[in-house]
Specification:
150 residues; 2 helices; alpha+beta; single chain; 23% helix
Length: 150
């Protein structure tokens, strides 16, 4: 009998309400649905120094559909071109592979980066191998200084 009384007391103590402040309820906000806006962008990387070739261009319409293409040269010198559409039905790529022109690393070549973002003018940056090397050295020095500071 003592065990039963003791067990009942333990249950009562554990189930008794504790004076606590009420837990604030989380309010769910309505999800905001933004209307798609037309846009277009592109960028091209033609880096002779590191032998990197990559390009992408896409445009979206006011219905949320996107059409675009991107391409790159694989290390085995195959040019890969992907044309795609993305819409309510999903992502639909068409992939084409073909031999690329012979691209070789040129340590004294140039690197060109071209970009067009929505609502901007196209701009391009061309760096010589020496300029690119100097930029990388400065970036490595800044990273090293930042790591030493904390």
């Amino acid at each position: 009998m003592k065990k039963v009384v003791w067990l009942v007391m333990v249950v009562v103590v554990h189930t008794a309400p504790v004076d606590q402040e009420p837990v604030p309820r989380t309010q769910l906000l309505d999800q905001q649905h933004l209307t798609p806006r037309p846009y277009a962008f592109k960028f091209i990387i033609n880096d002779e120094v590191e032998n990197v070739r990559f390009a992408q261009a896409a445009q979206g319409d006011d219905q949320g559909r996107v059409r675009g293409t991107y391409s790159y040269v694989r290390p085995d010198n195959v040019l890969v071109i992907v044309h795609y559409t993305a819409d309510a039905e999903g992502f639909h790529p068409v992939i084409v592979e073909r031999p690329a022109s012979q691209f070789r690393k040129n340590p004294s070549g140039t690197s060109t980066f071209t970009m067009l973002l929505p609502d901007t003018e196209e701009f391009s940056v061309k760096l010589t191998a020496d300029q690119l090397r100097e930029y990388r050295q400065q970036a490595a020095l800044r990273e090293q200084q930042a790591a030493q500071q904390g």
